[in-house]
Specification:
The chain has about 500 residues and is of the alpha+beta class. The chain has 12 helices and 22 strands. Helix 1 (about 25-35) runs parallel beside helix 6, helix 1 runs parallel beside helix 12 (about 475-505) and helix 4 crosses helix 12. It starts with 13 loop residues before the first strand and ends with a helix. About 50% of the residues are buried. It comes from Methylobacterium aquaticum. InterPro entries: FAD/NAD-bd_sf (IPR036188), GMC_OxRdtase_N (IPR000172), GMC_OxRtase_C (IPR007867).
Length: about 500
Amino acid sequence: METRGVGTGGHEPVACDVLVIGSGAGGAVVADRLTAAGRDVVLVEEGPDVPADLALSPAEAMRRQWRCGGLMTAFGAPLLAYAEGRCVGGGTEINAAILQRIPAALLDAWSRRYAIAEYGADALAPYFREAEALLGASPPERPQGSVTTRFAAAAAALGWDHQSLTQAKDGCLGGATCAEGCPPGRRSMASAVLPRARARGLRVIADCRVVRLERRGARVVRVLARRRDGAGPARPMTFRPEHVFLCAGAIHTPALLRRSGLGRNVGASLRAHPVVRAAALFPEPLTVRHSATPLSAVTEFMPDLRLGGSILLPGYLGMMLAEDWQRRGWLWAHRERVGLYYAMARAEGRGQVIPIPGLVEPLVRYRATDDDWELLRRGLLALSELLFAAGAERVVPSLFGHAGWTSPGAARAELAAPLRRSRAGLATLHLFSSCPPGEEAALTATDSFGRLRGLSNLTVADASQLPEAPGVNPQLGVMAHAARAADAFLAASDAQARRRAARDDA
């Protein structure tokens, strides 16, 4: 016996046309598109369903919306700290809602390098436009506060190209609370996309972790999951979908595939945007609580490097200081005068995602290349120049054991030499490329439209499909790729239905 209700667990399989695993920028867009086409869609999300208008403290937001409280690490030389969303809406509930198109030259290069059919800047442009319209993408409207104005003025004084970043927002009130749920400003998957799909009949099952995909021949025939209902123990759930869209992100999509024994070239090509950070101490208070999240970026060195401002609230500053409290802890007493900034590299380094039997979280490895380290050195040098030009009295980089520089000359002298890798504290919010698409089978995990090789009814549609690091915030690119994959699925299934009808008529 099968049921088409959501249910709370037990042994009755849940049947549906399409099961979407993951509710972030990929899964929500797929669910929206497929329900608009009349498909019966169930979406499962490992994390909780947190109301989009709920105001959360930093500690509560990290507990309820961030995977493992925001404390995740990729092992390598050095360690790479990373963060992921784990709630309905995924990473779009914890990011700054910055929307940037992947540079056209990169899209065209990827099309050639990976032999991706019907791809490139022209093919993806309509999907970018749709995503921007859906989320109300627009430049900053309200005053940005001194954290951003100092940064932008310094870039102009140095003669560096810089721009205001486009954001998905609706009534931003400032306060830099993007990472805490942001009521009512951010237009995220939970606030702007999933409600439309729910109105068309989308069934959302939160607190439901998929543990295995079972295949028979060339099809996934069962999806095994465990759902936690309240404070009680997790209960088993089984799904029998006609088609599966796997949208669990660059870490958990390959982890689930490998745990299920599915796919080739899965989880071995993880890429990231490693970031080196700096805390800048200014002479006057920065009025952080009255500022928007920094939305100005230095684009002078793109596509390889981008400089910008980071999350500003005291809790996040405290996390950076706690990494090396002995050297940085004194800044806490001056936190009203401290801003956080970053240099982000479009890196070539690669990593691996390796599921560990019995553990929820996979082992993640990452190693930056020599060229990546040179980019990070250049980025930190440029960032220090910029912050001193902005009036900083001291710039403290995320280098362990470093007391900071008090002049641009001191930074230049030290950064004339390569970074000492063992001292670098790197972090990232951007992970991708672990299941790349294309017809170059030796390099890719799926075909050009996300269909996993060897299976006829499984499509990947999330950040793992970005072939390489894009050098910009990836959300818009993920949404565009997911919409393209959904359209390809609909076109193929409609064509199959027409062929079946023609055979029946004959």
